[in-house]
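Hi everyone,

Forwarding the result from last night's run.
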Amino acid sequence: MTNATLITAADFCSLHHVEYTFIDSLSEAGLVELTIVGQTAYVPDEQMPKLEKMIRLHHELEINVAGIGAITHLLQQLDDIREEMRMLRNKLNRYEDNF
């Protein structure tokens, strides 16, 4: 991973008006991945949308890290179910087309 795809966690926190301890808590809970280079923590580009969503949940709805973890888990399950339904519909359509 190159530095071009990373933003320092300190800059990210300053930009989003959030304490680094919050992001660190999310990382410790396994909800986001931080990249450590030297002694500096960075937020990878692909983690930013997920992290921004979690910050909105925290700020706007006052949900704590444990609640964010539960919500993230349920949303992932919902996405998995939607994907499974899409695959099953495709299989069903192939069978219906053969008859």
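The radius of gyration is 18 Å.

Cheers,
N.
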